[in-house]
Amino acid sequence: xxxxxxxxxxxxxxxxxxxxxxxxxxxxxxxxxxxxxxxxxxxxxxxxxxxxxxxxxxxxxxxxxxxxxxxxxxxxxxxxxxxxxxxxxxxxxxxxxxxxxxxxxxxxxxxxxxxxxxxxxxxxxxxxxxxxxxxxxxxxxxxxxxxxxxxxxxxxxxxxxxxxxxxxxxxxxxxxxxxxxxxxxxxxxxxxxxxxxxxxxxxxxxxxxx
Amino acid sequence: xxxxxxxxxxxxxxxxxxxxxxxxxxxxxxxxxxxxxxxxxxxxxxxxxxxxxxxxxxxxxxxxxxxxxxxxxxxxxxxxxxxxxxxxxxxxxxxxxxxxxxxxxxxxxxxxxxxxxxxxxxxxxxxxxxxxxxxxxxxxxxxxxxxxxxxxxxxxxxxxxxxxxxxxxxxxxxxxxxxxxxxxxxxxxxxxxxxxxxxxxxxxxxxxxx
DNA sequence: TTGTGTATAAGTGTATACATTTTTAGAATG
DNA sequence: CATTCTAAAAATGTATACACTTATACACAA
Lengths: 210, 210
Description:
Chain A is mainly alpha-helical. Chain A has helices spanning 3-15, 27-34, 38-50, 69-90, 96-114, 118-130, 136-156, 163-178, 182-209, and strands at residues 24-25, 54-55, 62-64. At the A-B interface, helix 3, helix 4 and helix 7 of A face helix 3, helix 4 and helix 7 of B.
C-alpha cells in the first residue's frame, strides 16, 4: 500500500461523494484505515491537494474542497475557454483511429450512465475528444477542473435528472467529430458545459437554503 | 525553518537559474543545506512539484523541469488563451485604485529590470493587470505557467537583449488600460507573449546545438 | 573500444517517537 | 443565556532509524 495507492483510493471515495465538501480528513484516521503510518498519508493528501480536491493548510487538518458560487462560475468559465479551444484543435487532426476511440468512449459513457457511474464515463468521453490534440498540459488542467466540479456534483448527487440530456449531447458531439465540423462541435460543447454549470448552481442554491 | 520556507527558498534559487533544468535535487543534500531532516524537504519538493517547477517520480530523485520545444509552444498557447481572456475581463472593471496599482507595478518593473531582476518585476506587473478581474483560480493557473516559463528563461539567461522592448510593451499596456481599450490591450498582450515565446524557442535551439 | 553484469554506494519510502500547534470541552464570569 | 478563559485531548510537523530501490563504478567479455 504505497502513497500513490492511498491517493487513488481516497480520490475514488471523494469522487463517489463519500466525504461531504468541507469535512476534515485527519491523517491519523486515514493512516489506521489504510494500515500505514501518517507519512504516506501526508504524501497522498499532498497529491490530492495538487489535484485540487483537498485544501491543505499548515498545522491544520486537510479539508475536502468546498466551492462557492463564484468558484463554480469561474471554474466553468475556465472549462469553457480551455475545453472549447482544445476541441477546436483536436477535430482538424483526428485520425480514423481517434474517431474509433471516441465511438468506444461514447458507448462506455452510455453504459456507465446506466450503471449509476455517470461521471466516470463522462470523463472518459471528454478525454477521448481532446486526446488527438496532443496537448498534455492543456488536458491536465482541464481534467483537474473537471475533477473538482465532479466532486461537488457527486457530493450533492445532482445527476439522475440530466444524464439523458447530456448523453444526447455526447452523441451529437461524436457525430460532429465524424463530420469534422469544429465550429458546430465547439458550439455544442459550449452549451453542454453551460447547461451543466446551471444545474450545479441550482443545486448549490437549494442545498444552501434547505 | 519550516517546509514552506524551504519551498520558497528553493523556488527563489530555481527562478534565479541556480539549478539547470534536468539537474537532480537529492533530499539529503537539501536537508543538510537547510539544517533539517529529509521530511520537510520532501514536503517542500511536493509543493514545488505542485507549482510545476520540479518533476517528482516515486523512488527517483526530484529533477528540475526541462521543457521541450513542444512544451514551450503549448505553455505559451495556454498563456495566450488565459492571459488575454483575463485581461479582457479585467479592463472593463478596473477602478481608479486598480489603475494606480498598475502604475506602481510598472514603475517597479522598470526598476527591477535595471537591477537585473526582470522576471520579478514582470510578474508583478502582469499580476497587477489581471487582479481587477478577481478570478483567483484563473490567475493561479497563469502564474504557474509563467513560473515554469520563467525558470527556463532564467536557466538560459535570455533576457538582457529584450528587456527594453518588453518594458515598452508594458508601458503601452498601461496606457491602454487607462483608456479602457480592451481590444487593443489584448492585441498588445498577444504580441508581447508571442515575442517572448520566439525568444525562448530561439534560445533553446542555440543551446541545444551549441 | 563498447557493452554487460555485478557489487557498492547513494537515495528514497516509511515506521516510530516526541515536540509543537490546534481543537475541543468544560468551567468561570458577565 | 451567551461569552471568555483554560486545561485536556487531538492533530500536526519533524527527527531518527531502517528496509528497499535506484544509481554508480568497476571488472570482465565481445
